[in-house]
Amino acid sequence: MAAPARFTGSEALLHESASLATGLEDFGRDDYLDGLGVLLKALDTDLQPTAMGREIAWGMLVGVMSARLHTQEGWRRRPDCLGHHIRRPLVITGMPRSGTTALHKLLALDTQFQGLEHWLSETPMVRPPRASWEGNIHFQRSRRNLEQFFAIVPELRAGHEIVVDEVDECLEILKQSFVSNWFVGSLGVPSYDAWFLGQSELPSYRRYADVLRLIGADEPDKPWLLKNPGHIAQLEALLQVFPDACVVQTHRDPAQALPSLCSVLSMARRVVEGEGVQLLGIGGRESAYWRQALDRAVELRESLGGRVFDVDHRRFHSDPLGVVKALYGHFGFTLDAEVEQRMDRWIAESPTTRHGEHRYTPQRFGLEQEAIRREFGGYSRRFGLAGVTDDTREGEVQA
Question: How far, in Å, CA of 4 to CA of 41, rounded?
Fold first, then answer.
């Protein structure tokens, strides 16, 4: 179904489109409607999409609503899963572009953990046997969606590759509640952002935890490996839903990480906005958001003691297996010799520059490295990042 002439007030059409796409009708509680309404209005007032981008933005919304429908249907079929306790999930977070993805993919090679595969984030269901995925229509559709996305912005693969059957970010689930930083990162919608910053994400996190219970329903006791940079901005909500979480926080000089993040976001937004992306607006917003997130996290960490393991991007780049071993030792996980060998092969065979180098300049986003270092000075000094140049080329270890 084509995008409407106006997004504002199109809630009924959006629900109808998602139901037609899935054959399902139960969207669950209506607590997502406020955020959806604000977002739809922002798409009219803030966004300047291309003709194709307008259709893509509508398709994104239909996809999120379809994910809600599949989630509700999964809970209807497996209500028992909602009583499962998720014990000691291993959660990777930290400022974006600080090595979270590379660490996540490396740890996901250990089959003692279960993770959130990309296609299941789009169509939540009890995880089927892996041998059946290729024949699953939802898996096939998710793969086509990724191929189409990267066909529009192929350079994004060098900055942040997504693979249909590999682990992905929790953010893909959190957006189901329409109170999520995902929309701010993917679309130029400052009026939605202003509303979002005043909201609690705790209801989003409660739904997210129940989605994980659904996906892992057949293996409720298998530990979860999760990753989302945005968890660092919502540590309190994360710990309310997972009070015994094992938290891994990655660290990188913000003067390196922040411009890299802005570059990735600008590429993602080009899918909808074409060359009309307002680059200068990205830098200031992201700088303020992540500085506040890191400052709040420092305050909360004081009460967590040994439940946080810190990973310096430079150390992970130079000795990834050493970091993994220290991490396992810290939390009491066992690193099997066969898994270690698998990780060693992955490190040797997976240079992220295979899709090209990720190149950018801070000035494109209204940023200056020294100004960033001043703004993030307290955080950088606390974790030994201040005044240190990160001379690793972007892409050598995917951030």
Answer: 13
